[in-house]
Write a structure and sequence with these properties.
Layout: H1 13-26, H2 30-43, H3 69-77
Amino acid sequence: MICHMRTTLLIPDELFRRLKQRAVQARRTLSAVVAEALERGLAEPATPAKLPPLPVYRMGQPRVEVADRDALYRAMEG
């Protein structure tokens, strides 16, 4: 037996317009379009794609101690 649950969702106006337009174009109910979109969204992997490592640059020793505000100002002026 197939059970359905009735619920209330707060959907932004623009998103609702797009969903309604898709339902009209596909000649389907709004409920069917929303259910399909939710199924697709939940079917995506829960873990994000692995990102490539960020580049690392070796630029030598710092010329000034960044915690020393006066030394920073002197370095920027000179």
